[in-house]
């Protein structure tokens, strides 16, 4: 067991060094800029359905293992929305873009009358999972600064209460699933 613990510690250290390297290359800004670029896109846009999930997956991977320096860098990127250039103009729209995506997914969920394997719906659900994963890793137990930022967004020109939209998406998803269970139970009972 001591050997396994040492091996695990070495692997976490290796992962954190890799995360630090990516962070020093500006990957945090890139993740925010890629998602922020989706601000004016619809949910059916290829950019949202292909590149936003990839950016969120990279963000999730950066935040994995509790790397404090990468989390701090990401929080600085969130708060520093006055950057210039293409990346700066897009990254300041990160939260607003995610809010719009969540609202479109909520609308899509609420419009469903039955579960479908339609690729647009499946893609929306997969994107929703990536959003949940990203914010879950961002707000894991040790990252109090991120939780505080998401609630209050101090020092941000145009704050977005993303927590409410995440909660609404969870409620919509739960309501749709409960309705589907009722439908299935009712259908089976009368067949």
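^ Assign residues to that structure.
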């Amino acid at each position: 067991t001591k050997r396994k613990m040492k091996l695990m510690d070495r692997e976490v250290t290796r992962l954190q060094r890799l995360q630090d390297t990516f962070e020093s290359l500006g990957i945090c800004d890139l993740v925010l800029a890629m998602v922020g670029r989706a601000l004016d896109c619809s949910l059916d846009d290829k950019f949202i359905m292909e590149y936003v999930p990839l950016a969120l997956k990279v963000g999730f991977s950066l935040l994995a293992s509790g790397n404090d320096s990468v989390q701090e860098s990401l929080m600085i990127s969130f708060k520093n929305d006055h950057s210039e250039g293409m990346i700066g103009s897009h990254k300041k729209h990160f939260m607003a873009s995610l809010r719009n995506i969540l609202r479109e997914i909520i609308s899509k969920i609420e419009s469903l009358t039955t579960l479908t394997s339609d690729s647009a719906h499946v893609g929306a659900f997969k994107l929703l999972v990536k959003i949940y994963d990203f914010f879950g890793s961002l707000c894991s137990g040790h990252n109090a600064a991120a939780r505080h930022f998401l609630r209050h967004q101090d020092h941000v020109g145009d704050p977005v209460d993303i927590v409410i939209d995440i909660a609404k998406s969870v409620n919509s998803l739960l309501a749709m699933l409960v309705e589907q269970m009722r439908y299935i139970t009712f259908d089976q009972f009368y067949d």
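Residues 162-190 form the longest helix (29 residues).
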